From TrEMBL:
GO terms for biological process: NAD+ biosynthetic process. HAMAP family: NaMN_adenylyltr (MF_00244). Keywords: ATP-binding, NAD, Nucleotide-binding, Nucleotidyltransferase, Pyridine nucleotide biosynthesis, Transferase. It comes from Spongiibacter nanhainus. Residues 9-188 form the Cytidyltransferase-like domain. This is Probable nicotinate-nucleotide adenylyltransferase. Belongs to the NadD family. It comes from the Bacteria.
Length: 214
């Protein structure tokens, strides 16, 4: 059985998944030397309206996107819960399966981090996992004071240190800056413009075949 001592979870609405997500996922996996990095499509995004594509369609696009990339997997567990996809619930479920030993790292972009104080039981996340924040162009770090106070003593010197404990660490990672968003991709599709090289070809095909975002 494959080693599962360090798992990174990169959650999102992925409406649709794009190369900003995929390039980040590869760089994070390399930086963490994680055994696997799972893209985790949500079912009901807790802090935004209903996505343009339904959960099955978003899952299918994520699966098509990671298929050629060894080390990137998909975790579809949030689609099995017919309720808002709170990350704390997902982490509790995973801890129930993995036990307390393996390192778990939750990966989020700086825009998501700036809203962390609105997440369900957000302080609890640190007893279940590490938190890795990706700098994202156009989204400077501006976390709430309560979040800043929480993460300050948790800050690690580098992503490789996450493997030394199961949870509780914090790090902000610099990575390639790709100012690509799903909102911009949906707008381009609606305007009949090309999205070539913004999403993998297999994702563009799914969008085309299912007539999404028009
Ligand atoms: N270009 C990018 N670079 C780094 N991180 C990103 C990028 N795009 C999205 N992310 C991060 O990936 C996670 C999932 O993002 P999400 O699925 O909401 O995509 P999005 O492009 O932000 O979508 P939307 O434009 O619909 O808000 C979030 O933590 C987000 O911050
Ligand atoms: O747990 C929460 O309360 C919570 C609130 C907002 C977002 N999240 C998760 O954060 C990830 C990024 O969300 P989003 O909306 O930026 O695509 C995704 O996995 C969401 O399910 C989680």
């Amino acid at each position: 059985m494959a080693k599962r001592e360090h798992i990174a979870l990169f959650g999102g609405t992925f409406d649709p998944v794009h190369i900003g997500h995929l390039r980040s996922a590869i760089e994070v996996r390399e930086a963490l030397a994680a055994d696997e990095l799972c893209l985790l499509p949500n079912h009901q995004p807790p802090l935004r309206g209903a996505p343009g594509a339904d959960s099955r369609q978003r899952l299918a696009m994520v699966e098509a996107a990671v298929a050629p990339e060894p080390g990137l997997n998909v975790d579809a567990r949030e689609l099995r819960r017919d309720e808002p996809s709170y990350t704390v619930d997902t982490l509790r479920e995973l801890r129930g399966e993995l036990g307390a030993g393996p390192a778990l790292t939750v990966v989020i972009g700086s825009d998501a981090f700036n809203n962390l104080h609105h997440w369900q039981q957000w302080r609890e996340l640190f007893s279940l996992a590490h938190l890795l924040v990706l700098k994202r162009p156009g989204h400077p770090l501006s976390a709430d004071d309560a979040v800043r106070d929480e993460v300050a003593p948790r800050r690690l010197a580098g992503p490789s240190q996450f493997a030394m404990a199961a949870s509780g660490g914090f790090y902000v990672m610099e990575l390639i800056q790709l100012p690509i968003s799903a909102t911009d991709i949906r707008r381009r599709v609606a305007e009949g413009k090309s999205i070539r090289y913004l999403v993998p070809e297999a994702v563009a095909e799914c969008i085309d075949q299912q007539d999404l975002y028009r």
